[in-house]
Amino acid sequence: MSDLRITEAFLYMDYLCFRALCCKGPPPARPEYDLVCIGLTGSGKTSLLSKLCSESPENVVSTTGADNIRKYWSRYYQGSQGVIFVLDSASSEDDLETARNELHSALQHPQLCTLPFLILANHQDKPAARSVQEIKKYFELEPLARGKRWILQPCSLDDVDALKDSFSQLINLLEEKDHEAMRM
Fold first, then answer.
1. How large is the average pLDDT for residues 121-137?
2. Which residues are CB-contacts of 8 (< 8 A; sequence separation ≥ 6)?
3. Which of 100, 149, 142 is nearest to 121 (CA)?
4. Residue positions in the annotated binding site?
5. What share of the chain is helix, strand, coil (3-state, %, to 5)?
6. What's the angle, vertex CA 157, arms to CA 161 and CA 112, rounded to 5?
7. The predicted structure's pLDDT at residue 15
8. Where are the alpha helices (DSSP H) in the chain?
């Protein structure tokens, strides 16, 4: 065997060793999840999701006036792996009561009752905003959601880091469920 071939063979082996030790390829793909985002008109669903995705506010089309489609929410539930429920923590008593009823309904819906919930108490930057503790008590989350996986987080458009943290917590709940399914 000529010296050139031996050198080429060693170079190729060095390349393979280098690839095996240092270059393991691209990072594994993150799992994708199908989530449903629901909440009353004006709660901030579109604005929060747009802010999270770094969308320009000019590109956001308001869905205000969509309360009449609430009865169709359940059509979007099939195939969902998690739920984001956005509520306006500074809303009127009547709207808060309606949001409470809708959240209770979603938590008990057969297609959603086993899914993790991220409940976002939006508009925390407004003076009339209720605290997370007030919302937890008013919505009766402790007794209602006992045994379910849920997170109640305060948020506003002004604090993107807190919003990202909330979604990270939801992803952790989703990944825990994936790991549980693998163990079975």
1. 95
2. none
3. 100
4. 39-46, 63, 122-125
5. 50, 10, 40
6. 80
7. 44
8. 3-21, 45-52, 93-108, 132-138, 141-144, 160-183
Q: What are the structure tokens assigned to 148, written together? A: 């379910």
Q: What amino acid occupies position 78?
A: Q
Q: From the annotation, which residues make up the binding site for GTP? A: 39-46, 122-125
**What fold is seen in the domain 30-183?**
Rossmann fold (3.40.50)
Positive or negative torsion for Cα 168, 115, 132, 143? negative
Q: Within a 10 A sphere around the Cβ of 153, how many other Cβ atoms? A: 18
Contact 155, 163 (CB under 8 A): yes
Q: How far is CA 130 from CA 42, 71, 87, 136, in A?
A: 16, 27, 11, 10
pLDDT band at 127 (very low <50, low <70, confident <90, very high): very high
Domain regions of the chain by residue span: 30-183
Q: What is the dihedral of CA 68, 46, 48, 30, to 10 degrees?
A: 110
- The binding site for Mg(2+) consists of 46, 63
- Answer for the pair 160, 51: CB distance below 8 angstroms, yes or no: yes
Lowest model confidence (mean pLDDT) among 20-29, 37-46, 60-69:
20-29
